[in-house]
Specification:
It comes from Stephania cephalantha. This protein is α/β, with parallel strands linked by helices. The protein is built from twelve helices and eight strands. The strands form two sheets. Strands 3, 4, 5, 6, 7 and 8 form a six-stranded parallel β-sheet that branches. It has a two-stranded antiparallel sheet with strand order 1-2. The longest helix has 35 residues. The chain binds 2-acetamido-2-deoxy-beta-D-glucopyranose (9 copies).
Length: 346
């Protein structure tokens, strides 16, 4: 009881003191002033952020040009770039925004075909398997330099559309050092705003048949003494598909699960980047798949063309020499559905 009385007394005596209303007012005034300054600061900060997000200055030919980013929310701007190549000028397209992408894929998963489809778009350049060259992937600095070169539009080959393109990238096979340096590369993707297209194949047994047949043709050179991984006519496709590989049933299941593990690991490593997961089977079967990719890359959607012809178009049972053994091996395992997969012809 006593304590309470004393407290209320103290409070009362403080309030009733003669000097305190003045002091209180001063304190209040100070607080209000500080609040005002703070609000002003916030507004200032917000306007600068907004200006940065809608207008970006670029220097071309000594003059500063401002490029306006249209229709994009502030958290989209990290994905929008205005590269200024050193070796040439983007001319009237200097302010055409460019998005960066990479296709992460594995051997015989339709990535070559997919790239020809992308490159049939007037605003997309996909530069192929640039990391098949050993020096470019021999260490992380070499890798990052190569990436910089592609994304600054300095990379030149037949797929380069340079001036007016709005999406630039390449395909990167998961066995080409990317899994070794995944941490640094994921940081690079996030920092540069590189969008990732995972391109996988659902039916890993078909993938394996294609890998083995392609390896065989490297030696056999069935098409008039030349080795071809991709073909443009049905006749050529039939010649290549006439070879039926024999699968080693001892290593079959370990091989399938190894491929699966690499797919899962790559998703784990690069899922922090903006990404889309695409399956070869869906590109063949689903007319929306290619539109989805174009929307993902923010390019005008159009119908994409490729001259490539599917090689192994027959049912699997006609494409594997030891089909009976293979089915016995896979039946009752998690991979059984690969056997039943319906035949599809593009
Ligand atoms: C961006 O630049 C355009 C053209 O230069 C100009 O009209 C517009 O007001 C600028 N926007 C901002 C937010 O500065
Ligand atoms: C910002 O990005 C997140 C995640 O990509 C998205 O869900 C959200 O809609 C975006 N915000 C705006 C304003 O676009
Ligand atoms: C696409 O490329 C064409 C031809 O170069 C160009 O006229 C057009 O402005 C580009 N469109 C976009 C959205 O980049
Ligand atoms: C990285 O690899 C490139 C090309 O093989 C080589 O020239 C360079 O010296 C290497 N750099 C380092 C730091 O090892
Ligand atoms: C790119 O290479 C082509 C030939 O492949 C050549 O005609 C063109 O001038 C080159 N462009 C640049 C900017 O180097
Ligand atoms: C092989 O060469 C002959 C003669 O040049 C040509 O007629 C034939 O079409 C070629 N076959 C294939 C599979 O390329
Ligand atoms: C499994 O992989 C090993 C090494 O990659 C290969 O030599 C072997 O032929 C593969 N087995 C089958 C059934 O393809
Ligand atoms: C099949 O694979 C097993 C395990 O990898 C290997 O020991 C064996 O030699 C292979 N058999 C043939 C015929 O290649
Ligand atoms: C293709 O689509 C049809 C129906 O939408 C489906 O039954 C079939 O299994 C699909 N084929 C593949 C290879 O995904």
């Amino acid at each position: 009881m006593r304590g309470i009385t004393m407290d209320s007394e103290n409070a009362f005596s403080f309030k009733s003191s003669k000097r305190s209303p003045f002091m209180l007012r001063m304190v209040l005034l100070f607080v209000v002033m500080m609040f005002g300054v703070y609000i002003g600061f916030l507004c200032l900060k917000q306007t600068t952020v907004q200006m940065e997000s809608t207008n970006r200055s670029i220097v071309s030919g000594g003059a500063v040009t401002r490029c306006e980013i249209l229709n994009s929310s502030p958290n989209e701007t990290i994905f929008v770039h205005f590269p200024q190549p050193k070796t040439y000028s983007r001319g009237e397209c200097a302010c055409t925004p460019v998005r960066f992408f990479v296709i992460l894929s594995m051997q015989r998963s339709g990535s070559g075909w997919f790239e020809t489809l992308l490159n049939s778009h007037p605003n997309i350049s996909s530069h192929g398997e640039i990391f098949s060259v050993k020096q470019r992937k021999s260490n992380i600095s070499s890798i990052l330099m190569t990436l910089d070169s592609v994304y600054s539009l300095e990379w030149n080959n037949s797929a380069a559309k340079n001036e007016c393109l709005s999406a630039v990238g390449f395909k990167w096979m998961l066995n080409q050092a990317i899994m070794v340096y995944h941490r640094q590369i994921a940081n690079y993707f996030n920092w540069k705003g590189v969008s990732v297209i995972f391109l996988f194949r659902r039916n890993l047994l078909r993938k394996l048949v294609s890998v083995l047949a392609n390896a065989y043709d490297k030696e056999a050179k069935q098409l008039n003494g030349t080795h071809k991984s991709h073909v443009h006519t049905k006749e050529e496709a039939e010649v290549l598909a006439s070879f039926k590989p024999t699968l080693n049933t001892t290593s079959l299941i370990p091989n399938l699960s190894q491929v699966e593990r690499i797919m899962v690991d790559s998703l784990q490593h690069f899922k922090s980047a903006r990404h889309i997961i695409l399956y070869y089977e869906d590109i063949i079967n689903n007319s929306r798949a290619l539109s989805n990719v174009q929307e993902f890359l923010k390019v005008p959607v159009r119908s994409l063309q490729s001259r490539q012809v599917k090689i192994h178009a027959r049912p699997l049972s006609e494409q594997i020499e030891n089909w009976a053994d293979v089915s016995t091996t896979l039946r009752g395992t998690q991979y059984e559905h690969f056997l039943n997969h319906r035949n599809y012809i593009p």
